[in-house]
Amino acid sequence: IPESRKNVDLWMVKKMAFLEYEWRSSRKGLKGRLGLLQSEIEKQGRASRKGYERAGRALRDNRIELVRASWHELSISVSDVSLSDEGQYTCSLFTMPVKTSKAFLTVLGVPEKPQITGFTSPVMEGERMQLTCKTSGSKPAADIRWFKNDKEVKDVKYLKEEDANRKTFTVSSTLDFLADRNDDGAVVSCRVDHESLNSTPQIAMQVLEIHCK
Question: What is the C-alpha to C-alpha distance for residues 62 and 77, in angstroms, rounded to an integer?
């Protein structure tokens, strides 16, 4: 396919029965962002056409853009990635015989900013406190950790529930403890870690107000 050609046929297919050559790889994209798929196939014979396939349907989507097309490489980008874009993509080089290359696109669901609930100010010394941290929309399920004045609290409850779309998760964690006068003014925080956050966790904080008896 000449470099200058703009109207390149793109296909998508989940399975192909006539595969004779496969190159497997994986790619990850963030929901709402950009995903890139690149295929390289050794040049053998004369190609009549080249394209990406998935689920047996032509790629007629304005979000999909051709990045590079040559005799040995075809790259496409998918903007505003959605969860439904996840799956196996096959690049086909229509030579004799047909050559193919596969890549699996994994779409990550970015967790929403966490919220802490359950605190009613002020709290009397000796009363039991239950603080719950919750976040939705993560794929795979996010991890929640609790801290009190930057010291991690390990004894917590963790709950994972599948969202209505059956693809993302809502996770919550509950911190249960007795209020102590030494906790007055302490900062309790819950930290959400997820691979989509690029090592920058999302954090929610609550300052405790404890009254002595």
Answer: 11
| Domains, in order of start, for the chain | 8-22+34-105 (2.60.40.10), 115-211 (2.60.40.10)
Are the beta carbons of 107 and 139 closer than 8 angstroms? Answer: yes
Closest CA relative to residue 75, chosen from 121, 25, 124: 25
Condensed to tens digits (0 to 9), the pLDDT of residues 158-185 reads: 999 999 999 999 999 999 999 999 999 9
pLDDT tens column, 98-141: 877 788 888 999 999 999 999 988 899 999 999 999 999 999 99
**Strand pairing partners for 58?**
11
Non-local (6+) Cβ contacts of 210 within 8 A are 122, 123, 124, 125, 179, 180, 181, 183, 184
Burial (CB < 10 A; 0-12, 13-18, 19+), residue 84, is: exposed
More confident residue, 208 or 38: 208
Instruction: For the full predicted model, state whether its pTM sits above 0.85.
Output: no
